[in-house]
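Two proteins, back to back. First:
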Amino acid sequence: MTSVLTLTRKELKHYFNSPMAYVIIAVFLLITGWFFASDLFLNDLVSLRSYFAIVPLILLFIVPAFTMRLLSDEKRQGTLELLVTSPLSDIEIILGKFLGGLIFLATMLGLTLVYPIVLSQLGELDWGPVIGGYLGLLLMGASLIAIGLFSSSLTANQIISFILAFFIGFVFFLLGKVVGVLPAWIAPMVNYIGFDMHFNNIAKGVIDTRDLLYYVSLIYLMLFFTLQSLLNRKK
């Protein structure tokens, strides 16, 4: 565990020593702030509905942008071979990089906590959906980080890594949107595979173990694929 935390700290240092990280955070806050302000000042609504509606879509672009380098950059610089032959195990490398990305995401989402705090001062705010919404965003974001980590393990090109991560994440995002046009026999299965149903349930403040299990399983699956990708490089 010490090795994992050491690598996590290294990843966080890389994030916050890079101008790109601050650009990503600034863009995220500007877009989400605009939707928050639109509801508050233009529509006169004490609600985070627009915020929770738009953030999943924003994460599809934001998360691949800060995960595309996790392993791709190591490959490009030729340091991946050193990393995988170091005393660190492949699992420790994957967990360290995943946790670094997750803490970066949590920090970014944490900066928007000012929105519900402001709303609570202006009117009566139902904190159940707010807590559920943030939990849903964190779980979805964690899934996208795992997808991004897997994508970055496949190529040394960060642009290709970004495109792969975006494409895979977009498929999961889109599945819940097309359920209405699918045959009845396959719609429930497609709906379960997609992000929509699980995020919407949690965002309502309904914490169902089936939704939690979905995200945990998806994260595990993508990290497992990443492990296999690293192991294949050693053959």
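And the second protein:
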Amino acid sequence: MAERGQRGWGSALGLIVLTGFSVVHSALLIFVPLALMLIALPPHRPWHAIVGVLGAGLLLWGATGQLTYDFGRGWSLVLAGWFLVMSVVVQRDRFFPRALPALAGAVLTTGLFFALNHGSFAQLDTAIRTALEADIDRMVALLSRLGRGPGPGMTTALRQPIEFEMLLYPAMLAISSVSGLAVAWWAHRRITAPGREALGPLREFRFSDGVVWLLIAGLLLLVLPVDDVARRVGSNLLAFTGVLYALRGLAVALMLLGSPGPLGILATVAVVLVLFPIVMAAAFVIGLTDMWFDLRTRWGGAPPAGT
């Protein structure tokens, strides 16, 4: 997602919201990569390195005793490191061709760590479940203090999404991680080169057609007779690629129909909230179709733009 330096505030704010849908704190997903970018990426200026070192030190120094936060620090550090590697490998001055390989590298590195440390992923799962349940307990306690304590039925309903979140938190972490990298990339450009490209309009969003193989792999893992672990991997691959293709479908709609004004944005948000499954399914189909037929070039006359 790239654009002229003086723009991109709306995209950045939207991406910051996306970083909140994760078990890892948004500050880690944004500021750890930003700190490392200031240290390692050009232009190399002393005050960039000083700010980067201080920022990274504040976020990464010391043990907290909280497994979820410590995992978040490790994950964000590995993710940022892979993004820097991809910034050397990928010569094109674009964000997404660096971000997706960086995410893949972070997933493989973390997966190798879990494989070599038997039981560590189960411990993380337990810690995340405990944290989610604690959030619900705090919400119930707050409602009770306000004199509007939920009954047993509502308490049960509040806990039901936990199973869904436990199943798909890796996919939500992946989406939030790419969003955090994008915000960090945008902030780095704003700091180091205000006149150059940063984050751009959603209508230009696209990615490599090779992502479809992740979608196919997810589908195969769900339909083949595999164990629960493989089925969970398939579910998360589908969720991650589904969000990407839905965003691509939304980009196609914005290119062909035009960007809505303030009232149009409010109306669109209302429709999405009310008809969320239908809207997501339609956007996914449009995004997948765009991969094959390049709808924006075919109908809108817009040349393919990198992200």
